[in-house]
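Worked problem 6 (solution included).
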Amino acid sequence: MMRNLEEGALSGVLATAAMSAVMLAGDRAGLMGEHPPKRIARAALPGHKHRPKPGEGVLGAVAHFAFGAASGALFAVTMDGRETRLPLGIVYGLAIWAVSYQGWVPGLGIMPPAHRDRPGRQVVMVAGHVVYGTVLPLVLNRLRQGDRSRYPHHDWVMAT
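Solution. The predicted structure is:
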């Protein structure tokens, strides 16, 4: 189980990096406004949840990667060493988006629900979560390819 957690966390960090590249591209295109991880960090820091605070950008980035690592670890543990298919990863990435941007983030009053948020930001966030869900199983499968002896009963062809 520890190996699943480690491989999943690493896969989640790399998938978050790819997702962050999508978010930065969206930012450069003028679609993002403030990045959700920064707004979430702002709300978590002491003081008014909608007023800028020192360190919120760094905290937001760290929290974003930590959340991505934890989500990757959860995904890997639930897969329990089985080959991870690409469509399942994409569904997982979109589920994270839905639970976050239609669920707990607006539920805590941090941002409006996706359907009332900046349309451009939500297009970028959906695309970013699709990228996360694509990279996550690809990296996880690659890491596990080097460890076939641990799971001899599985087919280890990369999902493409």
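Discussion: The mean pLDDT is 90.
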